Amino acid sequence: MLKISIWTKQDEEISTTMLNHPIVRNIRRRPLLVVAPLSLIVILYLFIFSHREPSKKTQKYSYKSKNKSWFNKNKDSVILRNLPKNHLSHYDLNQLTVSKTPLENKEEILVLTPMSKFLPEYWDNLNKLSYDHSLISLGFILPRNEDGNKALKSLEKAVKQTQSDPTTKFKKITILRQDTNSLESQAEKDRHALAVQKERRSLMALARNSLVFTTISPSTSWILWLDADVIETPPDIIQDLAAHDKPILSANVYQRFFNEETKKPDIRPYDFNNWVESEEGLKLAKTLGEDEIIVEGYAEMATYRTLMAHLYNAKADQNTEMALDGVGGGAVLVKADVHRDGAMFPSFPFYHLIETEGFAKMAKRLGYEVFGLPNYLVYHYNE
After folding, report:
1. Residue at 260 is within a domain
2. What is the CATH number of the domain that holds 329?
3. H-type helices in 50-145, by residue range?
4. Is the pLDDT of residue 36 over 70?
5. How far is the C-alpha of 226 from the C-alpha of 244, rounded, in Å?
6. What share of the chain is helix, strand, coil (3-state, %, to 5)?
7. Strands 264-269, 248-259: parallel, antiparallel or unpaired by DSSP?
8. Using an 8 Å Cβ cutoff, are 152 and 142 in contact?
9. In Å, what is the CA distance from 364 to each residue of 338, 342, 357, 359, 361?
10. Structural domain harbouring 171
């Protein structure tokens, strides 16, 4: 249907009245009076709201402040003002040196010890290390049981005494408590019983992993694993072992005792976890189930492996090296990058090995070599 609008005289009068209104006449004569304020309002609006945060879907992380408007408080700046200066630390691990002469290059050492019993002889030996103590950090992990509580009290007392003396003070000392279970009895005959080895070594592996991955720092060059019952080492053990420049290097752990036959002080092998694989050992592994492990040093599980403990020669060169397939944890120097690259202590059967021996196997799978020094002795506490 055609729709027709009719312009009446009344409409014309209304239009004339509006055009003759003072405000309308003023706008028609000076249009900038309206355009300028409107333009300013539009510009301010765009300036204020154009810097809002983008959608979360497209937002990318940036150190720059997200909110740059004049009238909105910048939450990022409030947080930054409350942080200490230089709160961002940058580490270039490519500049970290791991050399044959760590002391000359001021390389930092991390000495790690799982501890269920505190021995004063261990602590005295630690204080006698000739390496610059300001470059040595210590790390300990203790079980959450009565033995651990007792050891913790003695350890804290020793730490306070050592750290109060500028001549013995270490760079840093960290003490952890295990968040896993531990064996009830830590007596030598109980903890070395074959029946408890899988459980014991599994728990030890968890403790070692917690300790190393909690305490290692970007400035750590070397890690010395030193058992809490190794009470006698050469004062220069860090320099001596580092001089071989091996990814993993173990000392030979012996024990002092009184020989009833000769009626004289004597020494005997103690740690049998430093070994070279044998054909018999490989054959034995093939007969085991997935969850079974081989434990060295027990007649019930004969492997006929070559044990470094039996190769000590008092007349031979102390620096003689031998390649190993398994290591113990008595006194082992490890390049920190071995752990950084993922080598840890398996708490589960890893090629039928566990804990320190499993660590050696894992490191070799990662391409690292494992060595031992059969004529370089450290001594275990005799209970």
Report:
1. yes
2. 3.90.550.10
3. 75-82, 120-127
4. yes
5. 18
6. 35, 20, 45
7. antiparallel
8. yes
9. 10, 12, 11, 9, 5
10. 104-380
Nearest to 226, CA basis, from 357, 123, 102: 123
Q: Where are the alpha helices (DSSP H) in 30-74?
A: 32-49
Token pair of 207 as six digits: 């403790």
Residues in the chain: 383
Residues 10, 162: Cα–Cα separation, whole Å: 107
Query: Residue 183: left (phi > 0), alpha (psi -120 to 50), or beta?
Result: beta
H/E stretch holding 157 reads: helix 146-163
Residue corresponding to tokens 């020793």: 158
Question: Distance (Å, rounded) from C-alpha 283 to C-alpha 300?
Answer: 15
* Locus of tokens 């840093």: 172
Helix (H, G, I), strand (E, B) or coil at 326: strand
- Counting residues of the chain whose pLDDT is more than 70, the rounded percentage is 76
Token pair belonging to 141? 């992990």
How many CA atoms lie less than 13 Å away from 192 in the CB half-sphere?
11
Total number of domains in the chain: 1
Flag whether pLDDT at 80 surpasses 70.
no
> For position 11, what pLDDT does the model report?
57
3-state secondary structure of 264: strand
Q: Does residue 58 fall inside a structural domain?
A: no
Domain-embedded: residue 136: yes
